[in-house]
Write a structure and sequence with these properties.
18% strand, 11 helices, six-stranded parallel sheet, binds beta-D-fucofuranose, six-stranded mixed sheet, alpha/beta, elongated, 48% helix
Length: 330
């Protein structure tokens, strides 16, 4: 009897194992030779770095959406250095990835390496930041925000806020990474709008590299050399948050003694806005992953994609920040 039962158990186990094997090999056969192996897209992605809350959210968005779309992501962090990005792109070309996506740390100096990718017939998608290459056939599309528009929105808030003022308005500016598209364009858009009225004066403007630490350090120097600062325009939340520490350290009240405008609208920035330490934030969405994966799939299928895909964005004042914070994704 015992023998009979154990024989039955062995038989049942064997059947289960076989069934397991069968469905396993069937499964991987189906997606292995059919899709999971040869057919699955390999994307080489060269990220700028990890300089800000925006960047962290952007990296997560790209990684999560690659997984969701079944795209194999080879991710490389350039630590804000163009030479590292060039190396990463060359290595993606050598690895013969299907598609390269990257967020160029600065605008210039990409033609040679992009030509290498083109010669290897590997399509390139620009994400987040643009390049200034004259030859636009070097990449398939550019997905990201309109940074000039963001700068204009920041400037327009200031113009409205000071519409009745007659005295000069002294502004200090914390620029993003030197040579980067968002630094160039956020500066230009802002200058264009405030330039219409000569009472607005940018009395100091320097890079804070998009980081909190550098934002604090540069703001400390601004405060030392300029006793009379009315407004800080920071090209991202992180530099603004660093600057808040410097302002408080100098015994001034951020949001009151010095009005603050930033860009991004990441959670920490939105919290400072809701707390009254920042006055206005122009949103810049880092959630580019889903659109990036979609564009990559289309490009590889040979479908036409628009040369430019612009992200939709809004702005927040203090009350709007309080309302938006509980459901803020990043
Ligand atoms: O605003 C900043 C980040 O390129 C839009 O880079 C991005 C910018 C973003 O470091 O926080």
């Amino acid at each position: 009897m015992l023998k009979k039962i154990s024989a039955m158990v062995v038989a049942a186990l064997a059947a289960a194992t076989l069934a397991g094997c069968g469905s396993d090999s069937g499964g991987s056969g189906g997606s292995g030779s059919g899709g999971g192996g040869d057919d699955s897209i390999v994307m080489g992605f060269s990220q700028v770095g990890a300089e800000s809350g925006w960047r962290t959210a952007n990296t997560k968005s790209v990684q999560d959406s690659a997984k969701k779309s079944g795209i194999t992501l080879r991710f490389s962090d350039a630590q804000q250095k163009q030479e590292n990005q060039i190396k990463a792109i060359r290595s993606f070309v050598q690895q013969k990835v299907d598609v390269i996506a990257f967020s160029p740390v600065v605008e210039s100096g990409w033609d040679t390496v992009l030509k290498e990718a083109k010669d290897a017939k590997i399509p390139v998608i620009l994400t987040d930041r643009a390049v200034d290459s004259k030859d636009t056939t070097l990449y398939k599309t550019f997905l990201g925000s309109d940074f000039i528009e963001e700068g204009k929105k920041a400037g327009q808030w200031l113009v409205d806020e000071y519409k009745d003022a007659t005295d000069p308005v002294n502004i200090v500016e914390l620029q993003g990474t030197t040579g980067s598209a968002p630094a160039n364009d956020r500066k230009a858009g802002f200058a264009e709008v405030i330039g219409a009225d000569s009472k607005f004066k940018i009395i100091a403007s320097q890079t804070g590299d998009f980081t909190r630490a550098k934002g604090k350090e540069v703001m400390e120097a601004f405060l030392k050399s300029n006793p009379d600062i009315d407004v800080l325009y920071a090209h991202n939340d992180d530099m603004g948050l660093g600057a808040i520490e410097a302002i408080e350290g100098a015994g001034k009240v951020p949001g009151k003694d010095i009005k603050i405008i930033t860009v991004d609208a990441v959670k920490d920035g939105m919290q400072a806005l809701a707390d009254g330490k920042i006055n206005f934030i122009v949103e810049c969405s880092p959630l580019l992953g889903p659109q990036l994966m979609d564009l990559a799939q289309k490009v590889l299928k040979g479908e036409n994609v628009p040369a430019r895909v612009v992200t939709e964005e809004t702005t927040f004042d203090q009350e709007q920040a309080k309302a938006a914070l509980p459901s803020r994704e990043y």
